[in-house]
Amino acid sequence: MTTDGVTPLVDLRRIVKRFPGVLANDGVDFTVLPGEIHALLGENGAGKTTLMNILYGLYQPDEGEVHFRGQPVRLGSPRDAIRLGIGMVHQHFMLVPPLTVAENVVLGTQPAGDLLVDLTGAKKRTLELSERYALPVDPLAEVWQLSVGEQQRVEIIKALYRGAEVLILDEPTSVLTPQEIEGLAGVLRRMAEEGKAVVFISHKLREVMAVSHRVTVLRDGRVAATLATVDTSEAKLASLMVGREVLWRVAKEPRQGGESVLIVRGLEAVGDNGLLALKGVSFEVGQGECLGVAGVSGNGQRELAEAISGLRRVRAGQIQMAGQDVTGDSPAQRIAAGLAYVPEERKRIGSIAEFSISDNAILESHATTFSRGGVLNQKAIDAYVDKLVSDYDVKTPNTANPARTLSGGNLQKLILGRELSRAPRLLIAAQPTRGLDVGATEYIHQQLMAARAGGTGILLISEDLDEILALSDRVMVLFEGRIAGTLRSDQADIKTLGLMMGGARVEVPGT
Amino acid sequence: MDWNQFFQEAFIVSLLAGAVRLSTPIILAALGEVISERSGVLNLGVEGVMLMGAFGSFWGETVTGSPWLGLVIGMLIGALMGLIMAFFSVTLKVDQVISGMGLYLFGMGMSSFLYRIAYGVRTTPPSVEGLSGLHLPVLSDLPVVGPILFQQDALAYIAILLVPVLSFVLARTTLGLKIRAVGENPQAADTLGVSVNAVRYLCVIFGSVLAALGGAHVAIAHLKLFGDNMTVGRGFIAVAIVYFGKWRPAMTLVGALVFGGAYALQLWIQATGAPIPHQILLMLPYILTILILALVARQARGPAALTKPFRRGEG
Amino acid sequence: MRFLGLRVEKRQTIPPLLRALAPVLTAALALAASGLLIRLAGGDPIESLRMIAVGAFGNVQNLGETLVKASALIIVGLGMIVAFRSQVANIGGEGQLILGAIAGTWVGLRFADLSPLLLFPLVVVAAFAAGGAWGAIAGWLKARLQLNEVIVTIMLNYLAIYTLNWLVRGPMRAPGLAGGFPQSEAIEQALWWPRLAGTRLHIGVILAVFLCLAVSFILYKTPWGYRMRAVGANPEAARFGGINVGRTLVLAMVLSGGLAGIAGAGEIFGLHHRLLDGISSGYGYTGIVVALLAKLNPFATILTSVFFAGLAVGMEAMQRSLGTPFALIASIQGLVVLLMLLSDVLVGYRLRRV
Q1: Chain A residue closest to C222 (CA)?
Q2: Domain-embedded: residue A506
Q3: The predicted structure's pLDDT at residue A126
């Protein structure tokens, strides 16, 4: 099959891929032409990553064919894909942290007979590629020391080093500032001009419109449309992605005002790598106020949430909750003082996968509310869980089932319900709707706003600027462990926020 | 009592020589475990492998008459034990602590069982010639240093030479690069075409072969006989030393020598006739292990993928 | 993976019936392996297995022997369940049992004039405390310094063995036995735990069943048990939920070591009536095996303990009558662990026609 007489580099035909309980790809056709930047758009769970993993040889399709340069091919493993000239930069980087950049680049490339690692050759070629495509890196640096943006450049060089003619990027911009995204766009355009093909997976409409030549929209495992970018718009793509009209703003009552539920002064905390992650942060959250924390992940958001919730020790500074100094308190004490936390990783930290839904629901309160005389009060627990499950629309056939049987959305609703049912003074919500479908997202947003109306102060940490702008009263941007600026949400715009996220200091009156 | 005799050169020299000899099995087992753990597999069954290596080499020598062939047989048995561990840890992907304990109990039991089948019940246990100290021209005759360092058996020299060899392999060869990658981020290595399973199998089997050699040393180089449970926990001490050595061959050697020193020290104290019950002295190496672990605990950060089975597609 | 027109396919969910069948499969494979080893030793497998069965369950005496061993295994096994459910690999059962035996003996000798009814709880508490303290050392080191509990508990085992060694030859040696067997003074007959007539089966077996119920209750019906299971299932989430992980780990080790200690007291007061070398008889390790085989379920531990005890007692009897000590049971132990892991995996797959 050819498009305008040009043979596609990549031609995926009628791809079907099943996983236990889900049909990830349902007869997908997808082509990539040489010299084009092709965006693969869709919501979380639409099947984009699965499709590209098939192209990269990580998965094998249950049905359908893969053609490369017009020939049918069988990709049993990434080795086969790499040999053909397909490279992939994953969402979670595939780098080995203690090794140097050069070692990461050269790993697995030398022929079987080679005994010694060819570090000089690797270093030379890395620098060549780095220059040619404007991807500055230091070959001798150890990867764990690099910033996220630098690590991404190493990943791209890795692919180019192996002679990639087709480069797949999975959500490349979720870890970059708006300015770094511009830099990446330049790199991709350079590659396209040389005749290479680029596929990038995204759920961000703005970038897709800015960079791609063509865009394929996936919805529920099927192709909703394949269009030339010039022929479409953000709104059109949004409705194709979702299948209906999308409303961006959530109904929000104006804030009533009240005293602070959280006061943070001069907070300093050390990150996992031994370096200072929070460098003197001060802010307040008022009763019934939602303070959004924006910023590219890796700038201290996680450490901030952990410091406030007691999971990370602070090196300096003070944390006050509802007038009480909780700086040295344990998580249990802060929970008792009115703290609730919906963590970023709902499966790994927010819940216990093997425990029943019922057991998960009493995680923080098992010893206090639901124990009597050293014994668990089963009747009270059952009543509470039934109410929780119904109030928060958690769909499950049986609350005795393990929590891992819940879908992402239902698990998040369970966790949110568990946290909110304690009528907390302060709720920290980190990436609360990441990976959820539109229905669950809307529901969670509504619940958050209801809690806000009821007087709970919310610290909303999110990478999704639209979500932050929709829900927050004020927006605070974190950059490299410091507050780059705070704006009222009705005065905030993407450009200013983007500049702050990239480190520029912007003064805005009246916050 | 003439205290001077315990500080005389001859006495001290024989003590230090003993320290090196006692360290050898631990050096071998620990180096093997370093390689295994660098690739991401924790092998707690080292003690069992050592015992099987001890039996295998002992039996091998009584059957063939040659200690070297005995060592070969011991190594083959070690490889077989390693194959079992690799099968459970890498292919079946079971919990490595449990499979390690299973391997330990299996090795401990089977070595005793096979010994009884091979030799039956006798009043005097069989013994072998075994490996004796080598005589190296010039070097062995040096004063002081000669007996301590240069009259050891061949396995001791192999053990010490392995340190720079393994360091080089890990740091500068393509295989070493693959091992390090597989132990830190197997998903990444996999996407680059490295066969994670093959590398892990290789490392676990190699580690077991070395452990078996360590056990063989106790049997045919040191005691020249076989007894139930004759390694008395040295396999576990070797695992602890890997932590102490921060998964690097050179530091591991230092740790093992410290242990040999502890064993030798308690022998020295016993010899002086000091009024400390010898059982208390025997506890020294074990207490030392705990203390050393406590000392390095905070900074010990092993290979990131250690004890985690590799499944493609899982982040 | 496919061959012979069949394909091996991974199951999505394992039906509970099949999951319960896995230990049975393991037991069957273990018996088959025993047969093979017996054949290797030059014996007749079928005849030997018959002799093992008779030796284990053939008459009241033998059954008593089996149950006596089983009750010690159950108690240690329960301790292992508590530890492993909290994700602490307690390999220190040997040492903890020994400490409990030492403490129990000391109490029994020191307070010999107390009435047996008063002494019994005193002994149990002392043994629990000693074993628990021994276990707590490893638990604390893991909680505070993240020390690998496998290595620490094994080191503590050796320390306990040498301590016992020293005590029965030194401070606690029975007077008047100059060159004889190293052992302590005997506990007064009045204080011995009552036995079933004609056998060596003592009330420890009732204690075992009681402890089984107690452990079940603690694990599933109390906040402590909830915390131990939570920490075992996901320590990060537990910490997030406000649970003090370190304290929970230590608690688990105290309970685990304490139970092993009680088993030690049972060996003294029910069986041997004096402290001697080798009092732990490898129960510390076998206890782990029976707990794992029972899939960490307290009531299933009763079954697996009886199975193992029967195997051990039967093999002993068989080897004795044949005149050949083979250390058979020791080789089976490790095999059982490996076979159990294998069975678990096998049960997760099925064969399909292609």
Answers
A1: A375
A2: no
A3: 92
**What distances in angstroms separate CA C151 from CA B44, B238, C148, C180, C225, one per listed residue?**
9, 10, 6, 35, 25
* The residue to which tokens 């079987």 are assigned: A112
Domain of residue A143: give its range: 99-163
Whether the Cβ atoms of residue A98 and residue A151 lie closer than 8 Å to each other = no
Chain A contact present for B80, CB below 8 A: no
* pLDDT tens, residue order, chain C (354 aa): 555 666 677 776 777 788 888 888 888 898 898 888 888 887 788 888 888 888 888 888 888 889 999 999 999 999 999 999 999 999 999 999 999 999 999 998 888 888 888 889 999 999 999 999 999 999 999 999 888 888 899 999 999 999 998 888 888 887 776 556 777 777 777 778 888 777 788 888 999 999 999 999 999 999 999 999 999 999 999 999 999 999 999 999 999 999 999 999 999 988 888 888 888 888 999 999 999 989 899 999 999 999 999 988 988 888 887 776 677 888 888 898 999 999 888 888 777 766
Stretches in chain A below the pLDDT threshold 70: 1-5, 21, 44-45, 178, 242-257, 498, 502-511
pLDDT of residue A510: 46
Question: What is the CATH architecture assignment of B10-126+144-296?
Answer: Orthogonal Bundle (1.10)
Q: Which three-class secondary structure string do you get for A316-370? A: EEEEEECCEECCCCCHHHHHHCCEEEECCCCCCCCCCCCCEHHHHHCCCCCCCCC
Cβ A426 vs Cβ A285: under 8 Å: yes
Residue contact A96–B189, C-beta within 8 A: yes
Quick check: is C48 in a domain?
Answer: no
* Model confidence band, residue B315 (pLDDT cutoffs 50, 70, 90): very low
Say if residues A230 and A214 touch (Cβ distance below 8 Å). no
- ipTM, 2 dp: 0.87
Largest CA distance in chain B: 71
CB burial class (10 A; 0-12, 13-18, 19+) of residue A2?
exposed
- Decide if A180 is inside a domain: yes
Question: Which chains does chain A touch, 3 or more C-beta pairs < 8 A?
Answer: B, C
> Residue B43's pLDDT is what?
95
* Closest CA relative to residue B263, chosen from B4, B27, B7: B27
Nearest to A52 by CA among A234, A191, A202: A202
Cα separation, A266 vs A319, whole angstroms: 9
**Is the same domain home to A73 and A182?**
yes
Output A365-374 pairs: Cβ under 8 A, ≥24 positions apart: A365/A422, A366/C223, A366/C226, A366/C227, A367/C223, A367/C226, A367/C227, A368/A336, A371/C222, A371/C223, A374/C222, A374/C223, A374/C224
Tokens 């530091």, residue located: B251
The CA distance from A75 to the nearest CA of chain B, in Å, is: 12
Contact A445, A250 (CB under 8 A): yes
Residues A12, A73 share a domain:
yes
> What residues in A contact C227, CB-CB < 8 Å?
366-367
Q: Considering only alpha carbons, which residue of chain B is nearest residue A162?
A: B192
DSSP string across A206-219: HHHHHH-SEEEEEE
For residue A97, the chain B residue with the least C-alpha distance is B184
Q: Which residues of C touch A349 (CB under 8 A)?
A: 236-237, 240
Residue C88 lies in a domain: yes
Does residue C334 lie in a domain region? no
Helix residue ranges per DSSP H, A225-313: 234-242, 301-309
Radius of gyration over every alpha carbon of chain B, rounded to an integer in angstroms: 20
